[in-house]
What does this fold into?
Amino acid sequence: MLAGKNWNANIVELINGASVNFIAKVSATILGLASTLLLARFYGADTVGTIATITSIVSVGTIFALSGFGTLVLKLIPTTQSKLGIQGTRKLYKKLLLINFSHALIVFFALLFFFTQSSIAENLNLKVHPLLPGAVIIFTTLVSVSSNTLRGLGDYIRYSALDFLASLFVMLIIISSILANASSHSIAHLYFAAHILACLLAFALVKGQFHSTEKLENTASEKSTQTQKIPTVSSLYSQALPMFGVAASQILIVNIDVLTIGYF
It folds into this structure.
């Protein structure tokens, strides 16, 4: 009887989480479409094309920066929480952030070298600072790790809020730029400031989730007394590399169209 109640409670929780996430994604999609329309209306096709090209570069670069860790987070976070409690999970989260931040820095310097070659930047029609794509990748990588951490902890409300608010930040930046009569060059840079805001928000949401979960553990007196340690760096890489291989194989399929259009 108790098992049946637990099963029903899990089903209800799953449905509620899926519903919240669905509404957030639909709302974020609508905001994204509205943002694109505003950009095209007030700044023209060239600006939209530049932003779309940078977005594709950021998407590809983020895959390399994550190196499979984005998917691995979803597996490790709930497993670590069940074995080591929230304290061990917090340590794992910080380790994952540090690892992926180092990956993002490598991608940052690689892109900086790539885009300082003037002929490449001209062919891609990128009238932006060479530092911009790499800098955005750093923030998108950290957001991805934090977002998947929220999912791994089962906090679909905070996870969905992060998804929606990131799109809302973009919309607010575009509207503010239009009202301030910002130039096309400025909006191409300001547009990606939303990733900085999303990163700060992601850190705050994860911190809040860790704090609330820790309170529940203390109340229930469920502090872990196990002696297991969080996975080592070598163990993390051995688990992440196969996932990175799958993600890397999809890079050209997903992004080659926008990159090719940007080139010509």
About this structure: The mean pLDDT is 82. The radius of gyration is 20 Å. The CA atoms of residues 86 and 210 lie 7 Å apart. Residues 2-66 form the longest helix (65 residues).
